[in-house]
């Protein structure tokens, strides 16, 4: 089981092997963390993503990190669920995002991975529930990843992720 660390900051500045992108199905970039990663990585990221698209909710694929600073070598793109009230399998899809991202990390040999709070932006997943699913799924997924950094963009998300990570 990887060590889980919760930090507040900019995921594009993390010193890890791979960062996870909360992407849309086109993998062409968008708003929020997706847009920030695309701006930092440069136009090659959208070109590489377009070649792999579509990426369906709950799935994950990897591309090179392009202009992101080393040691980041890869971007793992995953598409979270759009919140529709919780009765449409959203929790299973969100858990799959974390599980599949760790599986892809294993495939590319990444041992240190940074995740954003997947699905909590424009897709509307309730942040408290998403934090619990993130931590629970990471802990339950067999992986060779040694260190996971959960990167919160704001204080509220940081507090929720930290609380989930400290729960037994």
Automatic annotation (TrEMBL):
This is O-acetyl-ADP-ribose deacetylase (Regulator of RNase III), contains Macro domain. SMART domains: A1pp. Residues 1-168 form the Macro domain. Transmembrane segments: none annotated. Pfam families: Macro. SUPFAM superfamilies: Macro domain-like.
């Amino acid at each position: 089981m990887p060590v889980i660390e919760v930090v507040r900051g900019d995921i594009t500045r993390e010193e890890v092997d791979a960062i996870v992108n909360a992407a849309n199905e086109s993998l062409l970039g968008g708003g929020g963390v997706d847009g920030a990663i695309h701006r930092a990585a440069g136009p090659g990221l959208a070109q590489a993503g377009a070649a792999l698209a579509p990426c369906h909710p709950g799935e994950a694929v990897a591309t090179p990190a392009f202009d992101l600073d080393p040691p980041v070598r890869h971007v793992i793109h995953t598409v979270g669920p759009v919140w529709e009230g919780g009765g449409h399998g959203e929790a299973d899809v969100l858990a799959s995002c974390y599980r599949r991202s760790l599986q892809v990390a294993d495939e590319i040999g990444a041992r240190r991975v940074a995740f954003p709070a997947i699905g909590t932006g424009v897709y509307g997943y309730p942040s408290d529930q998403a934090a619990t699913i993130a931590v629970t799924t990471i802990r339950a997924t067999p992986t060779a990843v040694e260190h996971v950094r959960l990167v919160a963009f704001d204080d509220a998300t940081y507090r929720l992720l930290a609380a989930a990570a400290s729960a037994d």
